[in-house]
Amino acid sequence: MKRLSVLMSLIILLAFNAFGQRYLTKTGHIYFYSKTPFETIEAHNRQVNCALDVKSGMFVFKVLMRSFIFEKALMQEHFNEDYVESDKFPNATFIGKIDNVKEIAFNKAGTYNAKVSGTLTIHGVSRTVHENGTFIVSDKGIAAQSKFLIKLSEYNIDIPEIVAREIANEFNIFVDVDLKSLKK
């Protein structure tokens, strides 16, 4: 499984070489948040890999699940061992495209609304998603931001009944990446 993930990442990145101008980051930020009357769960990951081809609108995300940091060490341990099973499913990925890429002037400073679709894979389960996001183009690069909701049950992440009141089935996911040009 790990080899397949690495191979897919390489194929995708090599495919980007055939397209237009590419942007990349290895230090993107994704965090998730959920709140119940009993527990607030929040974790941050600042080691997110993302590549974007502005001509085609194709882009990919790869997130190492063990890189999520929780305020409570026990929560982090349960997340990795019991819920997302990080040893078995070490990465989450998104492979997609910007549906309205022609409406975004990646060569002109400004803020642009985007419609994005693709395949989100978490816990070994792949689902087609359609989300909204924002691209902020500046002389420093391209910032991409999005907020969306996932249901743990849709990704076969089981919550034991004993803690079901403490852990919500829905989590807000926030994406914030600053992409830099690969142009030489």
Describe the SSE topology:
Elements: H1 2-16, E1 22-35, E2 40-53, E3 58-64, E4 69-70, H2 73-83, E5 91-98, E6 110-122, E7 125-138, E8 141-151, E9 170-181
Antiparallel strand pairs: 1-2, 1-9, 2-3, 2-4, 3-5, 5-6, 6-7, 7-8, 8-9
Explain what the structure shows.
It is built from 2 helices and 9 strands. By secondary structure, it is mainly β. The protein has a single domain, classed as Lipid/polyisoprenoid-binding, YceI-like (Lipocalin, Beta Barrel). A hairpin with a 4-residue loop joins β2 (40-53) and β3.
Please describe the biggest sheet, giving its number of strands, its sense, and whether it closes into a barrel.
Answer: 8 strands, antiparallel, barrel
Separation, N- and C-terminal Cα atoms = 34 Å
Helix-residue proportion? 10-25%
- Kindly report the average pLDDT value: 89
CATH C-level class is: Mainly Beta
**What is the tally of beta strands?**
9
Globular, elongated, flat, extended or rod-shaped: what is the shape?
Answer: elongated
Question: Element order, helices and strands?
Answer: HEEEEHEEEEE
Indicate how many domains the architecture comprises.
Answer: 1
As residue ranges, the low-confidence spans are none
The Cα radius of gyration reads: 17 Å
Q: Which CATH architecture is right?
A: Beta Barrel
CATH topology: Lipocalin
Look at the structure and name the CATH superfamily: Lipid/polyisoprenoid-binding, YceI-like
Question: What is the number of helices?
Answer: 2
Widest sheet: strand order?
A: 1-2-3-5-6-7-8-9
Beta percentage is over 45%
Structural class: mainly beta
